[in-house]
Amino acid sequence: MTVRVVLADDQPLIRAGLRVLIADTPDLEIVGEAGTGREAVALVEDVRPDVVVMDIRMPDMDGIEATRRITTAHVLMLTTFDDDEYVYGSLKAGASGFLVKDMALEEILAAIRVVADGDGLIAPSVTKRLIEEFAARPEPAPEPRSVTGVTEREREVLTLVGRGLSNREIADDLYISVATAKAHVARLLAKLDARDRVQLVIIAYELGLVAPPTGGSTT
Known about the structure:
Helix 2 runs parallel beside helix 3 and helix 7 packs across helix 10. Helix 4 links the parallel strand 4 and strand 5. The protein folds into two domains: about 130 residues, Response regulator (Rossmann fold, 3-Layer(aba) Sandwich), CATH 3.40.50.2300; about 80 residues, Rossmann fold, CATH 3.40.50.2300. It has a six-stranded parallel beta sheet with strand order 2-1-3-4-5-6, with helices on both faces. The C terminus is likely disordered. With about 220 residues, it is an alpha/beta fold. The longest helix is centred in the C-terminal third of the chain and has 14 residues. The chain is globular, with a radius of gyration of 17 Å. This is Response regulator transcription factor. Keywords: DNA-binding, Phosphoprotein, Transcription, Transcription regulation. It comes from Actinomadura monticuli.
């Protein structure tokens, strides 16, 4: 299946580079380009892509606000800024992944595919710091999230997702097959109305299933 992609970046050279790269990739297709966040929001409504590759700093409306308004596509944030505030703001707004522009182009292509499949992806340089930063924020959800219908096994899986484990690592930890672990994650996404794996990590923290690291002790 071809993944339909929108490029949103105010730098034409960045868009051109990604466009050339994706043009040679048979399973990816560029269906539109935008130079501002506002243009990106309107374009997504028109063409309904699978993934939006979104710059954070753009005129008219930044990428974080644009991401907040996009609900029909996965958003992969692409920026030159390896900064906690940008990472935190992006994921809070609903982004499925966060990459920095100095990553290899092949890694960006792989990230588009991962995000299109519904998995969250964050650049290795920011993964652990992001989870700790998000967990430490004193911003509880206004109301407790409902976990009605989530089984005990699914809570175990959610806890492991919250700790950053992959499906294979979850399978090894719980002595189940990778296919079973993947099925549990898929059911959690549906039951918790989560867009992707990154949001499951956030939910695990909100529910207290995974505690943020503190000074000298771990949970």
